[in-house]
Amino acid sequence: MRFFKLSLLLVIFWSTQVMAHPTSFQGATSLMSYNTEEENTVDLFYSVKNYLAVGVTYQREDKTYFTVPRVNYLLQRWNNEDSQGNIYLSAGYGQERSYDQALGVGFTALDVDWESRKYYTSAAYNRYIRGDKENIERPDYEIMKLRAGVAPYLGEYNEINTWLILQTEKRNDTQWELTQFVRLFYRNVLIEVGAGFNGSYAFNFMVHF
Q1: Residue 190: Cβ-neighbour burial (10 angstroms; 0-12, 13-18, 19+)
Q2: Helix (H, G, I), strand (E, B) or coil at 99
């Protein structure tokens, strides 16, 4: 019975870990979508190994569109008795479309997280690296995001698990924006509904199969 309870705990913990990460278990396909009033992002990844995934990111920011094939790599993982930490690196090269013009754009990202069944923290930095446009230097596009969350109760694997998350985000020279989320997780499907303190909204969807 003790072994069964320990195995169930590991299954639940592993299931929460694989959802929002750039790599998942070997052979898994992950679909993630992040949406606000001014932005839509869709990520589609296939994990060749549990530490290596390939895929593509599509992002719309106002009237600018990025389409970037990319590679995600699990640089470091810490497995503790009741928690886990990860460091991920991502890189790619694709296209930026704006005002009927298409230009090449590079991409780099760093994701760091630590999570237990009760608490969750993460930090992410994305950078779209732009080249010159007719000898005019264009600034790179940067996105920084910090998150912290807590589970109000510890659900079983076959139950709906809930997280309360607070996120702060900054883009280039904009001010930090604060958004509160309710995360609902059931088996391999995760949904987040958010409301910003400035009246904005957010909806995120993640699934792996």
Answers
A1: buried
A2: coil
pTM for this prediction: 0.86
Specify the amino acid at residue 59: Q
Residue among 176, 178, 152 nearest 167 (CA): 178
CA distance 28 to 191: 19
Domains of the chain (ranges, CATH numbers)? 2-208 (2.40.160.40)
User: How many whole angstroms from its chain centre is CA 197?
Assistant: 21
DSSP state of 176: P
Q: Render pLDDT for 76-93 as a digit per residue (tens, 0 to 9).
A: 999 988 899 999 999 999
Tens-place pLDDT, residues 55-69: 999 999 888 999 999
147 touches 132 (CB < 8 A): no
Q: Please name the helix (run of DSSP H) or strand (run of DSSP E) that holds residue 6, with its range, or none.
A: helix 2-17
Please check whether residue 144 is in contact with residue 125, taking contact to mean a CB–CB distance below 8 angstroms: yes
